[in-house]
Structure formats: structure tokens, C-alpha cells
Amino acid sequence: MVLRVEKGPDNVPFVQLGECQLRLDLEDLNETFKERAKNELRETPEVVENALREFREYISKEPGLHLPLDDVNFLLKFLRPFKFYPDSAFRVLKKFYKFKLKHPKYGVNVTPNSVRHVFDNEVFVFLPTRTPSGSRIMIVNAGTKWNPKDVSVADMFRAVMVAIEIAMLEPKTQVAGVHVILNMEGFSLNHVYQFSPTVAKLMVDWVQECAPVRLKGIHIINQSIFFNMVYAIFKPFIGEKLKKRLFFHGSNKEILCKHISADALPKNLGGSGVVPEYPGKLLSEMLFFYEELFERFNSYRYIKEN
Predict the structure, then answer these.
(1) Which of the 8 DSSP states describes residue 144?
(2) CA–CA separation, 6 vs 238, rounded Å?
(3) Which terminus of the chain has fewer Cβ atoms in its 10 Å neighbourhood, N or C?
(4) Under 8 Å between Cβ of 196 and 237
(5) What is the strand order of the sheet 246-250 is part of?
């Protein structure tokens, strides 16, 4: 079977991987997820209406911030992760866009095509499966697949930003969140040299303070002494909330499966799921269909810092 990017009747691109399908889940929430959003996120018509009104007021009063106030889907992707508390969502939204203003090297013109080589090299991979609770599963191959000569730390960081933007697009992921598997197999001293305390702090601060996503867990596997060296650089900047979401599994894939589900993981990660591997270039090709959307996202910004 030749793997290729196709388009369904809904015009959404996908890759058929045996019984699995790699695609973005852009549909509205089904009844099961609506009930879950109601129970977990307070998502009722009245709460949503009030939150949207207050959120728009906050944004409209913020000097220099230009966002599409009439785009309900855009506003919801910030409100859902913060359980429709507009003040909490607004605090993170400001940090999200101020980061782009303060750090243009990392935050400006971030699109799938700008980091296509990261996905091509399979440094960053999306699984076509989800956890039983519906969480999106992402894999960062930070060792064997990562050649710093081809993919810089800045490229890695920007790819993470693209991935989070993608997760934010999916209503299901807005509710169920994301699990990240950080595969350190092949991580070497050369990789350690790519990180400085300044870069480490920047990356951790963005994950902790700026990313509007329900981060369910970061699962570190196959770590070695070299990982311990780079973790020592990152550790001083990691807050208590993020620490609770870090899980160090080493080579114990059974525990990884207990956290995520064996059915959702491929055999090379200890799972029992029939999850075929696919060339990274297919993910790049699929995400390229959203390039224009990302270009529009890049027009949303602070004109100047207030």
C-alpha cells in the first residue's frame, strides 16, 4: 500500500495508516465530549456566553493587541483550557502574544513550512491514535533522529509551537489535552551542547506560562547520563505544576503504557496497538495544507508592547 495524503469529503487532509487515520480532528464536539466539557470545563451555553463577552471586553481594552474578536472558534481555543474563566485565559493570551513580540527569533512567522525539515526528519511525530480519554499523543525524538546540524534548537522550539497551535485547533484536544513522549534514545554530549540556561529558561517559561493547552503529561523515555546533564540545565526553571506532569520511565515501557494505554502506542514504544510507522514527509505534506491558516494566525499580534 502506497502511503499518501488524501482529502476526505469534508476537505480535511489525512493519511490512511492501515486501520488508523492521521488527520486533524476539526469537527465540533460530539455528545460524549460535550458532556465531558460540561463536567470538566464548566462548558454550558450560559457559561460560554458570559465568558465570551468578558473575554472580548478584556481583549478590546488591551492596547496594541489585534485579534479576531468575531471568531468564536479562535476565542474558544483559549477559553477551554482555562475552564472558561476569562481572566485566567486572558493572562495567558497576553503572555502568548507578548512572547512573540519579545522573541521574534522564535515566535514570528511560525508556520508548518518554516519547520518542515523538523517533521521531515521525524524529530517531531504525531501518532494517529489517541489515549482512551481522547488526549492527542505527540513524540519528540530528541536523540537518534535529531541531527543539530540539520535541525537547530530554535527549529525544535518553533516546531513545538506549531504542534501546540495544531493541538489548539482541535476541539477534542482542547478538552482532552496532550501527552508528549520525549524519546531520548541516542541523546549525546553533542546534543547537550545545544542548550544554554538562557534557552532552557525561555523554553520552560513558554510551556509553563504561554502555551494555552491542557498538558496532561511529558513522558521521558530511554534517558541516559547525557539526559541527566541537560535536565540539570532545565531543572531550576521548572515549577511545581510542571514537575507533577513529568514522568521518567527510562526503558520501562510497561509503565509508559499504563499512563497512556498500550492500545494507543506502537510496538516500538511497548504498545500493542497496530500503529504503522510513516515517513515524516507525509506529516509535513499534510500540515502544509494549513499553511495559509497559520499565516493568518501570524497576523494576530501586538503591534507594540505596552
Answers:
(1) T
(2) 41
(3) N
(4) no
(5) 124-130, 136-141, 178-183, 215-221, 246-250
Nearest to 271 by CA among 281, 261, 284: 261
Q: What is the CA radius of gyration of the chain?
A: 19
Summarised one tens digit per residue, pLDDT across range 155-192 is 999 999 999 999 899 999 999 999 999 999 999 999 99
Q: What is the mean pLDDT of the chain?
A: 95
Strand pairing report for 178-183 and 124-130: unpaired
**Rounded to an integer, what is the distance from CA 26 to the centroid of its chain?**
15
**Phi, psi of 155, deg, nearest 5:** -60, -45
1 pLDDT higher than 80: no
86 conformational bin, left if phi > 0, alpha if psi -120 to 50, beta if neither: alpha
Q: What distance in Å separates the CA atoms of residue 88 and residue 161, rounded to the nearest whole number?
A: 20
Beta strands per DSSP E along 120-254: 124-130, 136-141, 178-183, 215-221, 246-250
The rounded distance, in Å, linking the Cα atoms of 59 and 116 is 32
Q: Would you state the pLDDT for residue 273?
A: 87
Nearest to 23 by CA among 136, 115, 179: 136
| SS3 (DSSP) at 60 | helix
Interatomic CA distance for residues 30 and 135, integer angstroms: 15
